[in-house]
Design a protein that fits this description.
Elements lengths: L2 E3 L9 E3 L2 E3 L3 E3 L8 H8 L5 E8 H5 L3 H6 L10 E5 L3 H13 L5 E6 L4 H4 L11 H15 L4 E6 L1 E3 L2 E2 L1 H11 L4 E4 L13 H10 L5 E4 L5 H11 L3 E4 L9 H9 L4 E3 L3 H19 L2 H7 L4 H4 L7 H7 L5 H8 L40 H8 L9
Parallel strand pairs: 4-5, 4-13, 5-6, 6-7, 7-8, 8-11, 11-12, 12-13
Antiparallel strand pairs: 1-14, 2-3, 9-10
Helix pairs in contact: 1-11, 4-6, 6-7, 9-10, 11-12, 11-15
């Protein structure tokens, strides 16, 4: 792929998360229906980093549901193997961690406390959970103990809303519990993905947490954004989510940026088409079914071809393609020599949503501790949802 120049100065040094050393201080954020084995393998082909699985619910793992066991299975080329868990019960979370460790299924485990989805926060889960400091402490301490020598980390948001921030207290608890790193998506649950991430919160967390790495998440659309976040906040690395949708080569840009290289990936339309086709092929392999794999790639069409001169009819046809041969035929009609369109292909992608009042259990905000009777209700928040 072609490259262009950039000029921001890069920080030096690899990122250590417990015993793991990452050549680039970059982590792929878990995204439901996106960060499966196929997408992780594709991203890894472009650059170094830590590539985390889709979020796995602890209850489903303990119950060994077939789909969950499939999702935690890594391709032999994936190393280190990273799995994110979502749990709301200390005992179940610890049991899920023990399965991953004792059966040698992961080299890194992350806990998600960032989901802003109303049907999760309504039960006190996700980004609402750290408000209950005792429950949060019990989950993290139990998970760290169960993980043993496997590094366990957490990812969280700033809090429920601007009046109910939790990240500094939760960060101190997690650090005291022995986590290996802490990642902060610098938005509250009420903000979803709207507006601009508050990088100053990442800086405050970095000032507060002194013994383990702090990673920043939110509005990383380019290598320059990553360098700027590190420069402005002092964070030790970045977590990238929506910025890599349809742009797995972003990890090549990030690795180059942190290595102090001035080159950036600027793919022609033909190179984008080849990457799209590779993604579809990996999805077919992942699902073990051509129909399911080609249906899954459809949601990526708009992201891959953003800014490129691809007509509406071709985009619509790709978004309804039913086989790899059909995809090949459609891609073969493109003008492969079309150059990288620059800014038109960059910037925000994925749904931002709009700010909204968080949906919480009745009287949830009245106390920072959870009543015993409420723990059963919180367990209802453990659904197949992701976010953070």
């Amino acid at each position: 792929m072609l490259h262009s120049s950039a000029t921001l100065e890069a920080p030096s040094g690899a990122l250590k998360i417990g015993p793991l050393t990452l050549d680039a201080p970059v982590v792929l954020a878990p995204m439901a229906g996106i960060t499966n084995t196929a997408f992780r393998r594709l991203c890894r082909e472009f650059g170094a980093g830590l590539y985390v699985s889709e979020m796995i619910t602890t209850r489903a793992l303990v119950e060994r549901t077939p789909e969950t066991m499939r999702l935690i299975t890594h391709h032999e080329s994936e190393t280190p193997r990273s799995i994110q868990l979502y749990g709301v019960d200390p005992a179940t979370t610890a049991a899920a961690v023990r399965i991953l460790v004792e059966e040698d299924r992961a080299d890194h485990i992350d806990l998600n406390f960032g989901c802003p989805v109303p049907k999760v926060t309504r039960k006190g889960g996700g980004a609402a959970l750290p408000w209950k400091l005792d429950l949060f402490r019990d989950i993290v301490e139990g998970a760290v103990q169960a993980a043993g020598a496997v590094p366990l980390t957490i990812k969280m948001r700033k809090g429920i809303d601007s009046d109910h921030l939790t990240y500094l207290e939760a960060g101190r608890i997690a650090e005291g519990a022995g986590v290996s790193s802490i990642a902060l998506h610098a938005r509250t649950a009420s903000e979803f993905y709207s507006g601009h991430a508050d990088w100053s919160a990442i800086a405050k967390l970095k000032e507060t947490i002194t013994s383990v790495p702090v990673l920043g998440n939110g509005d990383i659309w380019s290598g320059e954004d990553a360098l700027r976040m590190v420069a402005e906040t002092g964070c030790d690395g970045v977590v990238v989510g929506r910025g890599c949708l349809g742009r797995p080569w972003l990890f090549g840009d990030l690795a180059a940026a942190f290595a102090g290289e001035e080159t950036r990936v600027t793919p022609t339309l033909g190179e984008v088409a080849d990457t799209f086709r590779r993604h579809a092929e990996l999805l077919v392999e992942f699902f073990g079914d051509e129909d399911r794999g080609t249906r899954d790639i459809r949601k990526h069409v708009a992201w891959y071809f953003k800014g490129y001169p691809v007509g509406g009819e071709t985009r619509a046809a790709l978004a309804t393609a039913y086989s790899l041969q059909r995809i090949d035929d459609l891609l073969g009609e493109l003008d492969r020599d079309q150059p990288y369109p620059g800014e038109a292909a960059e910037g925000q992608r994925g749904r931002a949503g709009t700010p909204k009042r968080p949906v919480l259990p009745e009287r949830w905000l009245d106390s920072r501790t959870i009543a015993e009777g409420d723990r059963a209700d919180v367990a209802g928040a453990e659904l197949e949802n992701s976010g953070g």
